[in-house]
Amino acid sequence: MFTWMMDVAILNAYTLIKTTRPSAVEVLSTRKFKPRIAYILTSNEKQNKRRREVEAKSSHRDT
């Protein structure tokens, strides 16, 4: 159910962008749009995870 809702939300976002800014989506298919959205939504957490790992490694060296 969750994945279906995410898929519908992504398709709605694509349709909204396609409607409001057609020139921005001319070369972007839904197949390319989905991974870009996933990257954008997860990039902040990936950066936080890397920073926590670096901090954990440096704290282990200090002790």
TrEMBL record:
Residues 44-63 are annotated as: Disordered. It comes from the Eukaryota. Residues 52-63 have a biased composition (Basic and acidic residues). This is PiggyBac transposable element-derived protein domain-containing protein.
